[in-house]
């Protein structure tokens, strides 16, 4: 969970993640954890900037050979 998603937006000061989206995210993470647990794996939720969390996770795992990501598209006004 990226703390920046719960702050106000640049243009209008509205939160990027409102209560309905947050509930959806929490339910999705819960479902993913249950599915992974059934397969013998885990996915503990993490809080922090993704660039820091992913770096820490790679260091912790030690055997990562590739990382794939996508960049959020931002509207330019």
TrEMBL record:
GO molecular function: damaged DNA binding; deoxyribodipyrimidine photo-lyase activity; FAD binding
Chain ranges of the Photolyase/cryptochrome alpha/beta domain: 1-77
Alphabetized UniProt keyword annotations: Chromophore
Coiled coil found in the keyword field: no
Pfam family, one: DNA_photolyase
GO process annotations (BP): photoreactive repair
InterPro entries named among the record's database cross-references: Crypto/Photolyase_N_sf (IPR036155), Cryptochrome/DNA_photolyase_1 (IPR002081), DNA_photolyase_N (IPR006050), Rossmann-like_a/b/a_fold (IPR014729)
The protein's name in its UniProt record: CRYD protein
Species annotation: Sinosuthora webbiana
């Amino acid at each position: 969970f990226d703390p920046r998603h719960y702050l106000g937006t640049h243009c209008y000061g509205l939160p990027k993640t409102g209560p309905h989206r947050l509930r959806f995210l929490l339910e999705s993470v819960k479902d993913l954890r249950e599915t992974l647990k059934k397969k013998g794996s885990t996915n503990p939720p993490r809080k922090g900037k993704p660039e820091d969390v992913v770096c820490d996770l790679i260091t912790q795992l030690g055997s990562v050979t590739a990382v794939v990501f996508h960049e959020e598209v931002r509207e330019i006004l």
